[in-house]
């Protein structure tokens, strides 16, 4: 019988982290803002305007922040690879010994480690050192544009949910409707992200639901206090 193919999830980590963070932030921040504004006893139009502004500003902020952060990581990786290229050109023998030492430390015999290091160096020296010395591989390289797009898109999708609920709900019931819908969607998001990453779904769902409900409740409380003060 043919062995069962393995489907590892590490290849998804680059976009999955950004997408989950964006969607979670979109739901929590927009729902919290809507609940806070609604608790301040303002009009339905003001609530919708605040929610729409939160969606646009949040998506742009997520895209910019994620791009800058991951771009910094990509620049660091590029600088390290350039340094490694120079070292390979000027100190090839020393770099080979370093690679052999890495493989010996991982459990290979010195003879086998030397054989493996030489063959990998002949095939692609930079790739071997990038992967085994620096921990940089094709699957975990920083991708700033992909991360920014995933964050912005998922934030907008997440923020659209509480905004749509607030548009449809009557003014007296906006806070309750937005809270229930947002917490439910947070639970679904936690389950989906855990499933995609191979983690337990129940624990992930409960965690994001509790934290999301707490954020919305606290913001609604601040909005209520502000409304009384005004």
UniProtKB/TrEMBL annotation:
It comes from Bordetella ansorpii. This is Membrane protein. The keyword Transmembrane helix applies. The chain crosses the membrane at residues 21-40, 46-64, 147-168, 174-194, 206-229. Its main location: membrane. Residues 71-98 form a coiled coil. It is a multi-pass membrane protein. The keyword Oxidoreductase does not apply. PANTHER family: FE(2+)/MN(2+) TRANSPORTER PCL1. One of its GO terms (molecular function) is manganese ion transmembrane transporter activity. It holds the Pfam family VIT1. Keywords: Coiled coil, Membrane, Transmembrane, Transmembrane helix. One of its GO terms (biological process) is intracellular manganese ion homeostasis. GO terms for cellular component: endomembrane system. It is found in: Endomembrane system. It comes from the Bacteria.
């Amino acid at each position: 019988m043919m062995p069962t193919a393995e489907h590892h999830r590490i290849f998804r980590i680059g976009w999955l982290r950004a997408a989950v963070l964006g969607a979670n932030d979109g739901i929590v921040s927009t729902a919290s803002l809507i609940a806070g504004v609604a608790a301040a006893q303002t009009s339905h139009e003001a609530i919708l305007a605040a929610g729409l502004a939160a969606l646009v500003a949040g998506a742009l902020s997520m895209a910019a922040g994620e791009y800058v952060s991951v771009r910094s990581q990509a620049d660091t990786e590029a600088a390290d690879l350039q340094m490694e290229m120079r070292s390979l050109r000027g100190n090839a023998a020393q770099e080979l010994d370093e690679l052999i030492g890495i493989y010996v430390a991982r459990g290979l015999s010195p003879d086998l480690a030397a054989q493996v290091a030489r063959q990998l160096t002949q095939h692609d020296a930079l790739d071997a050192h990038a992967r085994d010395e620096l921990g940089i591989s094709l699957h975990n390289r920083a991708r700033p544009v992909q991360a920014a797009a995933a964050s912005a898109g998922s934030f907008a999708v997440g923020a659209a949910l509480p905004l749509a609920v607030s548009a449809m709900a009557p003014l007296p019931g906006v806070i309750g409707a937005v809270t229930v819908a947002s917490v439910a969607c947070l639970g679904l998001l936690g389950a989906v992200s855990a499933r995609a990453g191979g983690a337990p779904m129940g624990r992930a769902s409960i965690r994001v639901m509790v934290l999301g409900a707490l954020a919305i409740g606290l913001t609604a409380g601040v909005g209520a206090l502000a409304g009384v003060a005004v």
